[in-house]
Amino acid sequence: MKLVLKALYLPLNPGIGSCALGCTSECTVAKKSSFQPPTGATCPLFLHQAQTYDKIFNDNADIIFNTSPTGGGKSLAAYIGGLIKEKYRIVGLYPTIELIKDQERQLRKRCQEFESARTKRIDSIYGLELALRGEPGDRGRKFDQILRSLKRNYFIITNQDIFHLVLHLRYYNPSTALDKLPIALATYPDLFVIDEFPIFGEHQETAIINSLLFIRESRQKSRPMRVLFTSATPKPSFIEQLTAAGFKVDKVFGEDESEYREGSNKIIAQKIELEFISIDDGSLSWLLRQIETIKDDLKDPKSLGVGLIILNSVALSRQVFVRLKTLLKGEIEVREISGQVDEEEREKTRKLLESKAFDKPVLLVATSAVDVGVDYAINLLIFETSDSATFIQRLGRLGRHEGFTSHKAYILVPSWMRWIWSELNKLEPGKEFDRNEFKTEIVERIFSAKSEFKEYRSYWGNLQAQGMLRALSGDNIYDKSERYAQSLRTENIRNTIAETWRIICKNDFDKKIKRWFCLDQEVRNELLRFRGGSDLQVAVWEIRDDKSCFYIYDLLRLIPYVEIEVIDRKQFIQELAKVNRNEIEFNDEYIQLYIKVVNILDKRRDISLHCDYNSEDLTECTLAVINNFSIVEHPQSRQLNTKLITKSLLTFIVRIRQNKDSHWNEVTNKLRLPATFGIYRLKDNDGEHYACAFNQDALLLEALKRQLNRCKNSKPYIIY
Questions:
Q1: 538, 558 Cβ separation under 8 angstroms
Q2: How far is it, in rounded angstroms, from Cα 356 to Cα 261?
Q3: How many CA atoms lie within 13 A of 391 on its CB side?
Q4: CA separation for the pair 166, 181 (Å, rounded)
Q5: Which of 83, 347, 410, 441 satisfies CB 3.0 to 4.6 Å to 382 for a cystine?
Q6: Are 519 and 625 a contacting pair, CB within 8 Å?
Q7: How far is CA 83 from CA 66, 78, 194, 413, in A?
Q8: Residue 475 class from Cβ within 10 Å (0-12 exposed, 13-18 middle, 19+ buried)?
Q9: Residues 6+ apart with CB under 8 A from 234
Q10: Could you give the C-alpha distances from 388 to 192, 242, 391, 420, 673, in angstroms and in order?
Q11: Which residues neighbour 642 within 8 Å (Cβ) at sequence distance 6 or greater?
């Protein structure tokens, strides 16, 4: 199915006399910076950027959504106030480390362009960076480092995970009040910027609502909270939740145009030819069959072509990179960008593309490290689908730069996603769409989740809130007097947050107050995490082009793509030291195994699990903590299972037929789960087969289970 997307233009700010920044005689932005208007215009800003500034400083909205198109300058819209005003503090939240680093680079560049911002201090905070600060033996060092950064810096770039951990009181200093750091985070910044939040799910939406409630109730009335969400694809259901929680919400739309008008608009995306591809035997197989097509698409008459392949799995991206690098050697420069590639190599790739210092076409193989926000000049894009938000983000990488004759996109859609193909096949081949029409009629209608998993929110949402309130009350403080003092100090905030959740949950909130203590500890832990966790993390050592690389990955997502050797921690740390990496990056407390990658497989290996239980001892269609798992159909099963069999995992299982793909057909298709969802095939001692999921994926299946035929009459995990 081939379609065409028209070029995209955004209107410029009208400027002097009609400016949302209040400019009457001269342009404030042009006066204070080297950022100058295009030909025929009086202001260098897009209209949506000026409108965002106006909403932040002159409106009474608590929360603003900037939904302008990808590539339209939402980042500048977010930071323009901090660049113009001298004493203005902003905390920006970004979903990937790559994007945090990219935003810091852009912000430092902007600060140099704006005279008033040149001396402003900027800090980036993420897990590894934070772990390396301070003395390792100091229990409160992370607490102290974050607090110091909040006090000293005007711009802090971090991720949603650390934001969540701080406001859910997961960092502490034994000598300081438990709520000191969350209160500081809630009150020091003037603006919170939350970027690309739609890529997260209902669990994260509920967590962010809890955090925003804490911020609102912690701030003085004279300094009301201001939060800016920057995304082209906000979920209507999330905005409804925020409104129900009593937040004043406003939007800046960034309306686009399809024709050029000198001095009135500016192009932000070129015309794109796109094609939807049905994938039957995996993305790698299709890519290998299309080698000649890829070569042709990268032969651009104007410039050496640059292509980008974005895949859902880090392990698959590695497999694709190895195969394509071998097949295209000498003709195309193939490079990898993913969580497995160290910072030095990613920086080399970035500089190579920025300087255009290559003498042949370039093909990048990447994961979400680049699909959210990072900007490369490309003329070819190939990507796997996930959901509507990810679709928009990945497609938004293409067409942002001039200098190419054409821009082509191939969207890889698994053939088993029949609900998508049934709609795509109704489209008129070759039809030309403007961007708004394409977004609403195709992306949001066809690629959105069946019901946005609203069941998760109603099932688990207020239990997540209960966990936050228990932490605020000092429930985990051992000393009685300290616990009582903490409870008194946060009583008003807790009562107000609880009252808000009573409104959201239609008075169902109080029924769940005591149920928090009925949950298994594993369930409570999962509810208090932001992205969810893996209890099967492995530390991986891999040699690439005679260079050692080290990373952490989920065992079950890694082993289908590689041959491995199990090693001990001592050998791993010795190799780590040879490349001057710090062992603090690989905390033994959270790592189950240490692995050396011996070889990348040519074809994905199917794996399945076994549990040492009889059918009568397993309860399907509910959450359970299960152990005695083992991996089957893998050459290193014996080595891997020495650790796996001892692990107790939060699990949801449902019985399925014995044919190979029944866990996909009976569960994934029925619930329309995204391609990234972690679902596995499990067999018990009696030969019965199950579809199973772990941790946060298990929580989601528990909330959706009534849609499965086997679970229609099952009881809920928590009975009220």
A1: yes
A2: 31
A3: 25
A4: 7
A5: 410
A6: no
A7: 18, 10, 18, 42
A8: middle
A9: 65, 67, 197, 198
A10: 25, 21, 5, 11, 13
A11: none
Condensed to tens digits (0 to 9), the pLDDT of residues 142-190 reads: 888 999 999 999 999 999 989 988 888 888 777 777 788 989 999 999 9
Residue 456 DSSP label: H
DSSP 667: I
**C-beta of residue 333 within 8 angstroms of C-beta of residue 294:** no
Model confidence at 408, pLDDT cuts 50, 70, 90, reads very high
Q: Are 486 and 477 in contact (CB under 8 A)?
A: yes
Give the phi and the psi of residue 566 in degrees, each rounded to 5.
-80, 125
pLDDT higher for 112 or 388?
Answer: 112
CA separation, residue 516 to residues 387, 463, 519, 523 (Å) = 32, 6, 6, 10
Contact (Cβ atoms closer than 8 angstroms) between residue 647 and residue 627: yes
Angle between helices 454-472 and 521-528 (to 10 degrees): 100
pLDDT tier, 609 (very low <50, low <70, confident <90, very high otherwise): very high
Identity (one letter) of the amino acid at 500? T
Pairing verdict, β 562-567 and 593-600: antiparallel
Of 74-78, 233-237, 416-420, 423-427, give the range with the top mean pLDDT.
Answer: 74-78
Residue 263 is encoded by which pair of tokens? 């001095």
Residue 563 and residue 691: Cα distance in Å, rounded? 25
> If DSSP codes are grouped into helix, strand and coil, which group holds residue 36?
coil
Could you give the 3-state DSSP secondary structure of residue 682?
strand
Strands ordered across the beta sheet of 537-544: 547-554, 537-544, 593-600, 562-567
How many beta carbons lie within 10 A of that of residue 326, not counting itself? Answer: 9
**Sign of torsion over alpha carbons 232, 235, 240, 245:** negative
Locate 478 and state its tokens.
């051992």
* Antiparallel, parallel or unpaired: β 629-632 and 593-600: unpaired
Rounded to the nearest 5 degrees, what angle is found at the Cα of 159, between the Cα atoms of 157 and 163?
Answer: 100
In whole angstroms, give the CA distance from residue 205 to residue 63: 14
According to DSSP, the β-strands at 362-366 and 333-337 are parallel
**What pLDDT is attached to residue 32?**
83
Q: Is the pLDDT of residue 355 over 80?
A: no
